[in-house]
Amino acid sequence: MSWTTVADLLGLLSLLGGAMLCFAAGVGVVRFPDLLTRMHAGTKPQVLGLLLVLLGVWLRTRSGMDGLVLLLVGFFQLVTIPAGAHMVGRAGFRTGQVRPADIHPGRRERVDPSGEEAGPPPDDGARTPDG
Amino acid sequence: MTLETVETVLAWMIGGLIALAALLTLTRITIGPSVLDRVVASDTLVSIVVSALGAHIALTGAASTLPLLISLSLVGFLGSVAVARFVARDRDPEPPR
Amino acid sequence: MRGRLLGRQLSWGSILWLTVVWVVLWRSPTLLTVVGGVAVAVLVLVAFPLPRVRVKLRLHPWGLVVLVSRFLWDLTVASIHVAWLAIAHGPTTRGAVMDIQLVAKEELLQTITAELVALVPGTVVIDLDARQRLLTLHALEVENDKDAQRVRRNVRAQEARVVRAFHPDPEAVLDPRRAREAALARPLGERKEER
Q1: Nearest chain A residue to B89, by CA
Q2: Which of A76, C29, C53, C91 is the 20 to 30 A CA-CA neighbour of A126?
């Protein structure tokens, strides 16, 4: 076997890994019980899955410039996925989609069980209520 | 088993898994129950589409799909941010039992 | 280093980065794409100026290597774990929302920490209060104090790696004794100013 076949096969295997993580994400999004756990399933295995797919693409195309493009795609995904996930998670938390029982007692008292913030508002405006 | 059969089998497995994943996320988009659940699921769907495009490039060598990959990876999250920004306390009503 | 154009401050780093992206998008490093890239970069920076971030970071190469390799390892292990949780038979897992006190006061370091924590499966970042250095996140598989402690320990370790990779003087932040002394040495008024 020449090294190109090896690279082709490795690329396929890494694609397969990515596809399996995709599938797991799909299953998790359907099976997990509430919004935040679904976010774990939906957004996270995807990060590794996507990197694996991109690696697989590069292993099979093996072109330097395409590799740079794929690197860029991976970087953009790593930067943007947490931004989206954070916005959704915060919105879910603030609109009370977390069961009170799921808020860890170690949290500060300023959060009451409904997920709304109690206590004096911060003076710096850093936490705007519209979120 | 020749190398080609191995490649074909793997390619079908990859395609099947990605298709199943997309179907499952579509289920979650359909059943909700809240807007945010659907947003999360559609986010996942975007990632799955990016993976599918990547698999397409890798399996067919069609590098002309690469720009699509870039644009999706850059703007895929904007929709969910927009919805999350304006979401309120809304859920689908509980189905009657 | 910064140049000026039409009264705007342009950072050479941004121009370089945007040009590289432009050339990579064209997938052909010719003279035309490079010149066009520089032109587009300057145009973008003049038309859409960003607020300046005051950065006081120092790159520690070894710390960065540790950070990146450990991050990739964590990402792999945790992704497989969460994927398994999704597929495994039986009742699915639940999680809890919790607060974690960060040690670094630089917003950029907090952001990097939060970003990395958000990317590793098992934790979803919900909020980050930069002033209070409070990271709110949702963690999977947290049912008692011990689990919560485990998550807190992991996040703090992640932050320590970030600090070791980027902070100008990592030990001043990480060593609890020195951090306490620094806080005491500052007069009260200054402590209020600090952010």
Answers
A1: A95
A2: A76
